[in-house]
Every structure is written in structure tokens, then in C-alpha cells.
Amino acid sequence: MRTAGRRAQSLGAALGACLACACAGPAAVPQTAAVATDLRFAPLVPDEADRAARDLAVASLGRHADAADAALSRIVSFDDQQEDDGEPRTGLEPVGRDLANAAQQPGRAYLSASESLLERGDVEPALRERISRHVAADPLARADASVRDAWVTEFARLFNAISQPLGTSFVFTVMLPVRLGMSLANYAIDLYREDPLPLQRRQALAQWKDFLARYPDAPESQEVALEAARAEARWQRMQSSRALDAAQRAESDGRPQEAVALAERALRIAPGDREALRVRDRAAAQVKEQREAAARSTGFALPAGVDLAPEGTRPLVLALLDPQGDIASAAIAVPRESPIHDEARYALAIAYARAGQEAEADAVLEQVAAGGGTMARHAEATLADPVQSPWRHFVEARSRDRLATARFVFFGRLKLPEWTPDGVAKWILGATAIPSTVATFPFRVIQLPWTPPPPSARGTALQANRYLALHPNGVHAEEARAWLEDYESARGNHVAALRVAETREPQRRDLEPLREEAAQQTLEVARKEERVDLRAALLDGVVQRFPETKAGGEAREMLRKEIADTTPQRIALSRRFLVENPDVAGVRGLGLDPALLDGSNANGELHPDGVALVGGRRIEVSFVAASGDDSDPPEKRTAEVSEEQLARVVARLEETSFRNSLIDSDDPVVPNAERDVAFERARLGLADRVDPRPEARADYQYKGMRERYGLVRAREPWLPFDLVVQGSLADLSLGAFPRWREPKPPPDANLYQ
Question: Which backbone phi and psi does 497 adopt, to 5 degrees?
Fold first, then answer.
């Protein structure tokens, strides 16, 4: 009877889906919510199958194998009798066998029993999926899959390196040897650059270790241990090589402390490595020199026989300690032969910076840094610090951005080579892109005015904002504001552009278009905000700041509607979701009138918005408006249900969601803490105790699969390759070729990097 009921529900769902697509005329709107609130269910009377299932559970949990087998035999006999009488089988036998297997056959014996169970044809989809996932989670099976993916990846790269030049040389066959040779050379370079232990084989190593830890006495353990030992040796060599390469890069980049740490790491993995020893010793010597230099620069000692208070010392100290002191005059008065001349020059730079004489301050700091005296290191640090010298770094960053733009205009996507033998070789092999770059030069010039700022311009904007924060009335303040306004406008941040434009002196007079754009941008942000309180605050901000704009009027209407329609929560179930999941809409769930989902407007029809749990024990049902048009605002009715029915609705909804997620990977259970809290309160009978805090509001929507993915969901093709059609006038290539698909990296790939 259970199977027959499910088939009937599936047929009803399919029929409802077909009818929902039919053209509809004017609709009859029900006067009530059409939710059955007085449902009564007769108590279930257990039959022989139910009693046998109970005995099987007791025997399995108590590890009584004979009793479990006897109970399972009773279930099989009952199903056979049902089948002889023309009734469907209960479907309890596969579940019972899985329970007995789990209790009586621990370890890998349960895996073998599960594989045998999967060969049956009467295993329920949810149970089949759960058992399949357990079997696939076996460490040895996962390791085999990773090794297989590694072989497929290696084959796919070689296959694609050959198929692409062959397929694109049908028109100009004279270019076939050149293209094929270049493609194979690129493949050889990529193969040379490949890690000794690629990602998939690193995953296999981890799974082999897990298998040996779980099943040390398994028959396969000896062979697995040998494979793991070989992979571990390659892994250690790779780790040592990575650490040594990183140490050499750190040494060449002037980071000796980091080079020492990386070289020591390489030595821990491979003790006695000569190159690592040389790198460590050279870097350690540089670190020692740096520390000695730092110690010399931090100490101050007057030469023997020198006065403890050289000429100019007292006036300079008093000027530095006095907030109103004339530091510049006191610093200039210190003679050049004085032992505190460097300190005086540094103090002079401070005085110039406070007076807004930025160019003079930078010039003095550059002189002090070049002098090599006691304050040279401090002057260098000040000039190199983007916080203390923001304008200098802004100019440098702006120059880099302009250079990057010019490089793109002249050279397109053509990049400079990596200055390594294989990098230079790969760049030379890619020289066929040069004709294309030259041919597309006019297009890049034409597109230049509409090209968005490069990503590096964010750092330039940061330096401009730092400068304005430190020197709002500085010499370069207006130039920084003009650049910031252009930058924010170019990247579409009209709110920030308006904020900068309003602070410019003199202020622009044509700010109305910019205000319209800023208001519209803020309105779009408010529309996307999910929290009601934040959305209302954003709308109110648009109304208050841009009342004269078109977006301000729209925000005012949205805010009024928001206030009128606000409910303590809104957990919505769309019409499509209810059609696809009739258990939720049926008598065991919401108890909706079936006529609401039959596709006929004559007897009332559910709006695409569907049903919503709006707080407390209230359920809001949205009907198609009297016009019969789904795009019109719905007619809403509200019903209040009992605590028992609300708990039943929540339980049915969650059970259906988890079951769907188990069967279909495209229908996952999306985590939402507020929704889960609302469901738990409903189950405990606390739904009437509404939590008024905005952050406690539950907003969530259950959508049907068609609403998520359209009429047809994308599926994985069964062919292992894609047919690619490719052509280019720049390198005279035209044709079609198969491209073998490489296996997708697993979600935990980052753990094996």
C-alpha cells in the first residue's frame, strides 16, 4: 500500500505540473485561505509487517543475529503474501537487510554486504543514495577513484595537445606540422612543470593512509602500504623542492629571514641538502648584517671629547616639546658640523610637513636618507611607509596604472615571459599571438575611453583617500579628489563619486545627474537586501537624502508597502515547490484544497508566490488575482492553524527537503539559522512567542527545481569529450576538434595543495 500511495502522489504531481502550464482565464478568488485546519487522523493499527519490523530493530540493536534473521524472514513472507494477493510489497525488506548488515557485519564486511544490496531492484531511492555514498566513501574506493582521475587528466592533456592542432588545420594544412610541434612542445613544458605528486595522487596518498589506519589487518593492506610508501617518498621530495625554491626566491627578493626559515624547512625534510645549506648560510649572514646595522642605528653616542649639549641642542629640544615651538628655525640653526645635524634635518622635515610644505618635507627626507647618517634608516622608513607618505605612493601607484593601461593598449593580453628557461621557451612558442595583437590594436584604442579601471587602481584609490584623511586641505587635495571622482564614476560607484564631488572646491554645479545615479544605485542595493530592517533603513536613507529624484519617489512607495506588509517572519513555499512536493501540500502537511493546484482559475488557483509561514501560527496563502494573470499582485488570505498542525507542517517540510537533497544533488538543503530556529520553536509549541528582534526574523524561500534551473536542468554529458569549433584569422586556423574533459577537482582540493 505504501508504494501504491507514492505512485499515486507522483502521478498527481505530474498531472498538476501539466495543468499549471495551461492558459488561464479570469480567476475565482476564494474567500478563505482554503487550508484544512480541522484535520483528524485515525490511529495506525500495526500489521504483521510492522510487528516484524519492530522485532528486527530490537534484535539488530541488541546484536541477536538469529532473532534478526527470523524477523527479516517474517517481513519477506509478508511481502510474498502481499504479492500473491496482488498487493504491492511493503518495501521494508531492503531497509531491514541494511539494518541487519550494519549490526552484524562491522568494518569492510558491511561494505561488501552493501554492494550486494545495491544490486537489488527494489531499494528505495533515498536508501540507495545513502548506501551508495557510504560505499563511495570507503578510503580504498576513493583512492582508486583519485588514481583513475590522475590517469584521465594525464591522458586528456596529451589528447588535447594533439587533437587541437589537427582539428584546426583542415583549411590550411601547410600549418599542421608547425602547430602540432608547438602544441607538443607546450605540453612537454607543462609536463616538466608538473608537481612530482599531482593533486589527485596526493588525495590518493591521504586515502591510503586513512585505509591503513582503519584496517591494518585487511588483505589489501600490504599492497596499499607499498603504494603509500612510494607516494610518500615523492611527496617528501616535492615538499623539499618547494621549500628550497621559495627560499631562493625570498633570498633574491631581499627577505633573508624568510629565506632562512624556508631553507631550514627544506633541511628538515632532506637533511644534508647542499643547496639548502648554502642558501641558509648566505641568508643567515645577511640577517646578521641587518641586525648589526639596526643596532648601530638605534644607538646614539657622542664622540669622545664632544660637548654633551652641542650648539643648537637646547633650542631644538624646546621647540620639539612646545606645541607652538618654531621647529624649523631651531633646526636650521643647528650647524652642519654638529653631531645632531641629522636629527635636526629630520625635525625640519617634520616642521615642513606640519606646515603643509609637502615637497620641501620630502626633499629633506630624501637628503637625510641619502646621507647615511644616524637618521637615514628612519627617513627611509618614513618615505617607504604608505601611511606617512601617501602622496608619494599615490603618484607611484597612478604611474603603475597608467603603465599597465599603456601596456594593454600596445600589447593586449601578451604578457612578459617568466625569466626561467622553460618560461622563456613557453613565451617564444606563444609568439603566434603577436599578429593577432597587432591586428586588434585599433580596437583597443577605440575601446580605451570605456575601459574600466584596472584592479590595481583600488590601491591607488586607497592612497588617495589616505592623503585626503591626513591632508584634507593639502597642496594636492583637489587633484586627489578629482582623480577619486573620476575613478569612482568609471567603476560605477556613483554614491562614492557624489560624496567626493560634494567636497570639491569649488563644488560642481551639474550634480543632478550624479545624484540621480547615486539614488538609483542605493535603491538597487536596498532591493537586494534580505533583512527587512536594513532594507527599510536603506529605503529611508534614499528618501531622506534624495527626495527630489525619481529613485527617491520609488523608495518612498516601497517603504510604505514594506511597513504595511511586514510580518514577524516569511518562510515562503512557492506554487512550483508545492506541485513538485505534494506531501507538503497534502493532508499530511498544509492540507491545501487540491483545486488550488489543478491549473483551473474557475475554482481558484494558487499564485506563483504560493504559501508563507508569516509568524506565530498564521499561514498566508496567495491566490491568483481576479484578472487571472499570474504577473498581477496576488490576493492574500490568512489562516491560523493549531500548534499540532504547524508542527506537522514543519516536520513534513523538513523531511521532504532532506529527502530531496539526498536523492538529487541539485536540490541541497541550504543552511539558514533563523529558519531552523523558527522551525524548532514551532515543533516545541512556542510559535506564538514571537521574537521581535530584527536579527531574529526568518526569511527563506523554498523554490521548485524548474524555478531554480528553468525548463531543463543542465546535466553532465555522457560523452567524455566536447566538440569544439574554433577559428582565428590572426593565425589562419579554422576547424573542429574533440576536447577531452579533465575530471573536476573535488570540493576539498584546497586541503591537498
Answer: -60, -40
More confident residue, 751 or 147: 147
C-alpha cell at 727: 577559428
Q: H helices within 299-440, ranges in order?
A: 313-321, 327-332, 341-354, 358-371, 376-384, 390-411, 421-429, 433-439
CA-nearest of 342, 340, 297 to 315 is: 340
**pLDDT at residue number 52:** 92
> Quick count: other Cβ atoms within 10 Å of Cβ 314?
11
CB atoms within 10 A of CB 544: 10
What is the side-by-side order of every strand in the sheet holding 618-623? Answer: 635-640, 618-623, 606-613, 570-573, 699-702
Rg value, the chain, Cα: 37
Q: Cα separation of 384 and 379, whole Å? A: 9
Task: Calculate the CA 482 to chain-centre distance.
Answer: 35
Q: Cα–Cα distance between 331 and 312 in angstroms, integer?
A: 8
pLDDT per position as a tens digit, 487-545: 999 888 999 999 999 888 777 778 899 999 999 999 999 999 888 888 999 999 999 99
User: What's the longest Cα–Cα distance across the chain?
Assistant: 120
- What is the mean predicted confidence (pLDDT) over 83-109? 88
Instruction: Give the start-end residues of each E strand in 201-253.
Output: none
pTM over 0.90: no
Q: Tell me how far apart the alpha carbons of residues 238 and 241 are, in angstroms, rounded to a whole number.
A: 5
Q: Could you report how far apart the first and last alpha carbons of the chain are, in Å? A: 53
The 3-class SS string of 638-654 reads EEECCHHHHHHHHHHHH
Are 331 and 310 spatial neighbours (Cβ–Cβ below 8 Å)?
Answer: no
551-582: burial string, b at 16+ Cβ within 10 Å, e else: bbebbeebbeebeeeebbbbbbbbbbbbbbbb
Which candidate, 729, 733, 727, places its Cα nearest to that of 174? Answer: 733
Q: What is the DSSP letter of 596?
A: G
The percent of the chain in helix, strand and coil, each rounded to the nearest 5, is 65, 5, 30
CA dist 643 and 313 (Å) reads 85
Q: Is 187 helix (H, G, I), strand (E, B) or coil?
A: helix
Task: Determine the average pLDDT of the residues in 437-466.
Answer: 82
Read off the DSSP letter of residue 603.
G
Q: Which residues lie across from 98 on neighbouring strands?
A: none
Residue listed under C-alpha cell 593580453: 413
Confidence of residue 460 (pLDDT cuts 50, 70, 90): very high
The pLDDT value recorded for residue 3 is 42
d(CA 66, CA 407): 80
Say if residue 307's pLDDT is above 80.
no
Q: How many CB atoms lie within 10 A of CB 353?
A: 21
Q: Which are the contacts of 460, defined by CB distance < 8 A and separation ≥ 6? A: 394, 397, 398, 400, 401, 483, 487
